[in-house]
Amino acid sequence: MAFVDDNGLAFFAKRPLEGSPWIPFGISGRPSGPISFMLDFGNCQYSHEQLFFEDGEVPGNLGLFDEGQVRSDSNYPGNSHLYEVSSRGFDDCIMRLAAKPTYGPSYSYYNLLPGDGPWPKTSPGEQYNCQDWAAHIRKEYKRLEEIPEVRKQCKCPPKTDQGQMPWHARPIARR
User: pLDDT digit string (tens) for 2-56?
Assistant: First the structure.
């Protein structure tokens, strides 16, 4: 069954790395706690982070994989039971604009190990993984969300001092 959110609310979710179980004590981000928080802050949890859209458009999900490609999870929806939502409430249209420049190009220095440097990381040994990619997309989303022309293009209501309706107050429809 496909779930389609007529409000277009994209979300990020995490699952264990391919072929691995959830690792205890928060190392893979489950359950959450101080260790999980620190690893999440450094984008080095032992888990894969993927972006999911609920607008019914293709692609339905995107993430950076170890071959250096931003693409859909080829095992989804067969592995959907492994994913746990990590952040939600993003307008699908704005999120697609944020992710579009990254879809298709190859990141020759995908690296799961920690390091430092600006995005996109282009030196061997610097960390740039699916969680770094997701953090970059969230940052770009926040930038785009503030641009009135983008909000108009995506048919979003104008920003107000009180902000938008929170994600949990928006109705979700099933198709």
Answer: 445 556 699 999 998 887 777 765 555 555 666 665 566 556 677 899 999 999 9
Instruction: Give Cα separations from 51 to 55, 73, 111, 115, 141 (angstroms).
Output: 13, 10, 19, 23, 12
Give percent helix, percent strand, percent coil of the chain, each to the nearest 5.
Answer: 25, 20, 55
| pTM greater than the 0.85 cutoff | no
Residue 142 dihedral angles phi and psi, to the nearest 5°: -60, -40
CA distances from 102 to 1, 31, 98, 115, 167 (A): 29, 30, 8, 21, 26
How do the domains of the chain map onto residue ranges? 9-158
DSSP letter for 169, please.
Answer: G
